[in-house]
Amino acid sequence: MLTPMASALILVVTATSALLAWQAQPKDRPVPKVYWAWLNEDVVYIITPQERAAFLALTTDDERKQFMVQFWKRRDPTPDTVENEFKEEHYRRIAYANQHFVSQMPGWKTDHGRIYIVYGPPDEIESHPKGDKVRTYPFEQWRYHHIQNVGDNIIIDFADPNWSGEYRMTKDPN
Questions:
Q1: Rounded Cα–Cα distance for residues 42 and 34 (Å)
Q2: Domain span at 157
Q3: Is the distance from CB of 62 to CB of 76 less than 8 angstroms?
Q4: How many domains does the chain have?
C-alpha cells in the first residue's frame, strides 16, 4: 500500500521540480542579424564572457546600441577625443587580416588573423615558406617582445603541414 503512494509522491516532486527548473530558464531572445555579426565577427576575440552574456540578455535594439557605444568607450585610450583609437586600430587589424591571411576562410577567422587582431603586428617574423632541415613543411614564428598580461619574449609558432596555405598555431600564446 505504501509503494503506490511513495511512487506517486516521487512523481509529483519530480514533475514539480522539472516545471520550476523549466520556468527558471531565461527566454530565448533572438538577436537581430546585424548585432549577431558584431558579436560573433567584429568583437569575437576581444569581448569578455561577462560582456557577451550581458549583451545577449538585452531585449531592445536601443539597449544593444547603447551597449556597443559603452563597449568601445571602455576601451578608448583617450575618451575625451572624438576618435576612438582602439576601435579604429581594431577594425584596421581586421581589414589587414582579411587582406593578408585569407585561405579557405576569411582572414579574421584564421589563426594568423586571430593573433594579429588580438595582439597586433609581431615585432619579428621568422618565415620558412619551404620548411627547413627539421620541418619539411612551411612554418612561421612570430615574436612579440612584450604582450601585456601575457609576458615577454613570446614566440607563436604557425605551421602548414598540409601545404594548404592555412597556417595553424601550434603553441598556445598564453
A1: 11
A2: 105-174
A3: no
A4: 1
The helix or strand, by DSSP H or E, that contains position 126, with its residue range, turns out to be strand 124-128
What does the pLDDT look like over 92-150, one tens digit per residue?
999 999 999 988 889 999 999 999 999 999 999 999 999 888 888 999 999 999 999 89
Does 81 map to a domain? no
In whole angstroms, what is the distance from residue 40 CA to residue 52 CA?
10
User: Grid cell 603541414 — which residue?
Assistant: 161
Would you say 126 and 116 are in contact if contact means Cβ atoms under 8 Å apart?
A: no
User: How far is Cα 174 from Cα 43, in angstroms, rounded to an integer?
Assistant: 20
| Residue 132 located in a structural domain | yes
Residue 173: inside a domain, yes or no?
A: yes
Q: Could you tell me which of 163, 173, 48, 165 has the C-alpha nearest to residue 122?
A: 173
Query: Is 135 among the domain residues?
Result: yes
Q: Partners of 144 in the beta sheet?
A: 154
